[in-house]
From TrEMBL:
Annotated GFO/IDH/MocA-like oxidoreductase domain residues: 149-285
InterPro entries xref list: Gfo/Idh/MocA-like_OxRdtase_N, Gfo/Idh/MocA_oxidoreduct, GFO_IDH_MocA-like_dom, NAD(P)-bd_dom_sf
SUPFAM superfamilies per the UniProt record, alphabetical: Glyceraldehyde-3-phosphate dehydrogenase-like, C-terminal domain (SSF55347), NAD(P)-binding Rossmann-fold domains (SSF51735)
Domain Gfo/Idh/MocA-like oxidoreductase N-terminal, residue spans: 49-138
Source species of the chain: Verrucosispora sioxanthis
One Pfam family hit: GFO_IDH_MocA
Listed name of the protein: Gfo/Idh/MocA family oxidoreductase
Length: 383
C-alpha cells in the first residue's frame, strides 16, 4: 500500500490536551493503526515534529513514545519543507501569534478551541488563512461523543417531532488546590491568563447547539466566580479572577430554547459529567458522554403532583436505552482523521476557522450579556 507522509508540527504537546487527547489518543493511535486510509487505496502517515518550551519535557515524551523529531524552535519547524500541518494545543493566549506565523509559513492549520481570544482576532485568522490558501480546522470533539452521536441519530430519524427545549448540565467539583491538588491547570481560573468557564465551554456549546438543533440567535448569561481564592500547581495561593460558573439561555433558529449550566463548582449527582435533556412533541431524550435514553410520547406516564405523598414511581426506569449500533472511536481521533483526509484530498471539512470564530463570538457575547445584565442577539458571521 502506498504511504504518503504528512509532517505535523504538534505544539503544546506537554499540556493536558496536547499530550493525552491529541498525541496519545489521536496521532499515535492513528500511527498504530497504520495511518489514515484514503479512498484511492493510499494511506496518510503522520510524521510528528513535537514542539514545546521545555527541552527536557519534549525529550522525555519523545523517548517514551519512540519519537525522535522534536524542537523548542517553532520558527525552525515552520521553515521545514517536510512539515505541512501546524497543530496548536498551547494555552489559549499563545495561539493567535503562533497560528499567524503558521499561516505566513503556508501550513495547513488545525487547532484546539477557542481559536482566539476575541471574535475580531478569530475572524482575522480565518480571513488570513483563506487569503493564504491554507486549510483550517478547529477541534469540535463533543460532536463525536457516543451520547451525542446517538442524539443526532434520533434527530435525523425524526424521533422528537418538533424539538421544544434542551437542558444541559455540565460540570464537576474542581478542587481549590489547598488540601487536595486541583485537577485543572490554574490559568483556567485567572482572567488575565485567558481563563474562565465561558471562554472554555461556550465554544463547545455553540457547535453542539448549531449542529444538532439550530444556529444560536440570542444569548442571556449570568456568570459567577464562586471560589475567589485557589492554590496553584506550586502551592501558592492566588486570586481566582475568572468566572468558574455560567448559567446560560440560548435561543436557537426555529424557536428551540436551550438552557445550559456550566460549572466547576458543582458536585455530580448525575450519571455523566455532561448531560443534555431534549424535549420534543413526540418524545424526549437524555444524552450524556456515552449513553442516551429516550421516552416516547406513546409510553409517557402521567405523573400527578401531590407533595403530600412519597414518590411511588421510579422515573428513571421509565426510559429506554438507545443501542450503540456502531463502534465509537475516540472523538479527537475521528476528527483528526477527517482533517488529515481534508488536507490530503480536499474532502469537505465543515469545522474550519469560521466555525471556530462562531464559538469565540458566542463566548464573547455571553460575557457581554453577563456584564450588562441583558439578552444579546448573535449576529451572523461571514468572511
Ligand atoms: N477540546 C477540549 O475539550 C478541551 C479541553 C480542555 C482544554 N482545551 C483547550 O486546550 C488548550 C490547552 O489546555 P490544557 O488544559 O491542555 O492546558 P495545559 O496548561 O495543560 O497545557 C498548556 C500547554 O501550552 C504550553 N504553553 C505554551 N506557552 C505557554 C505559556 N506562556 N504559559 C503556559 N503554558 C504555555 C504549555 O507548555 C503546555 O504544553 C486550551 O486552549 C484549552 O482551551 C480543550
Amino acid at each position: 500500500m502506498t504511504r504518503r507522509s504528512i509532517g505535523i508540527i504538534v505544539n503544546g504537546v506537554t499540556g493536558r490536551m496536547g499530550y493525552r487527547q491529541h498525541l496519545v489518543r489521536s496521532l499515535l493511535a492513528i500511527r498504530s493503526a497504520g495511518g489514515v486510509p484514503l479512498a484511492d487505496g493510499t494511506t496518510v502517515w503522520p510524521h510528528l515534529v513535537l514542539v514545546g518550551r521545555s527541552e527536557a519535557k519534549l525529550r522525555e515524551i519523545a523517548e517514551r513514545h519512540g519519537l525522535d523529531d522534536w524542537t523548542t524552535d517553532l520558527t525552525a519547524a515552520l521553515a521545514r519543507d517536510d512539515t505541512q500541518v501546524y497543530f496548536d494545543a498551547q494555552v489559549t493566549q499563545q495561539r493567535e501569534k503562533a497560528i499567524r506565523q503558521a499561516i505566513d509559513a503556508g501550513k495547513h492549520i488545525y487547532t484546539e478551541k477557542p481559536l482566539a481570544e476575541d471574535t475580531a482576532a478569530a475572524l482575522d485568522l480565518a480571513r488570513a488563512a483563506r487569503a493564504a490558501g491554507v486549510r483550517t480546522g478547529v477541534v469540535q470533539d463533543k460532536l463525536f461523543l457516543p451520547g451525542l452521536r446517538k442524539l443526532k441519530r434520533l434527530l435525523d430519524g425524526g424521533f422528537f417531532g418538533r424539538v421544544l427545549s434542551v437542558r444541559g448540565e455540565f460540570g464537576y467539583w474542581v478542587f481549590e488546590g489547598d488540601w487536595q491538588p486541583a485537577q485543572r491547570p490554574s490559568w483556567n481560573y485567572r482572567a488575565a491568563d485567558g481563563g474562565g468557564i465561558v471562554v472554555d465551554m461556550f465554544p463547545h456549546w455553540h457547535y453542539v447547539l448549531a449542529e444538532l438543533f439550530g444556529e444560536v440567535r440570542a444569548v442571556s448569561a449570568t456568570i459567577a466566580t464562586h471560589i475567589p481564592r485557589r492554590v496553584d500547581e506550586a502551592g501558592r495561593p492566588y486570586e481566582a479572577t475568572a468566572d468558574d460558573a455560567a448559567y446560560g439561555i440560548f435561543e436557537l433558529d426555529g424557536g428551540v430554547i436551550a438552557q445550559l449550566n456550566s460549572s466547576w463548582c458543582v458536585r455530580v449527582h448525575r450519571d455523566e459529567l455532561v448531560e443534555f435533556q431534549v424535549d420534543g412533541t413526540e418524545g424526549s431524550a437524555v444524552a450524556g458522554l456515552r449513553r442516551c435514553r429516550v421516552q416516547h410520547r406513546a409510553v409517557t406516564p402521567k405523573p400527578v403532583w401531590n407533595p403530600d405523598l412519597p414518590a411511588t414511581e421510579d422515573f428513571r426506569s421509565q426510559w429506554t436505552e438507545v443501542p450503540d449500533n456502531e463502534d465509537f472511536d475516540n472523538g479527537f481521533k475521528v476528527q483528526w482523521e477527517a482533517f488529515l483526509r481534508h488536507v490530503a484530498t480536499g474532502e469537505p471539512f465543515p469545522w474550519d476557522f469560521l466555525a471556530g470564530a462562531r464559538g469565540v463570538q458566542l463566548a464573547e457575547l455571553g460575557l457581554l450579556s453577563a456584564r450588562e445584565g441583558r439578552r444579546v442577539e448573535v449576529p451572523e458571521l461571514s468572511l
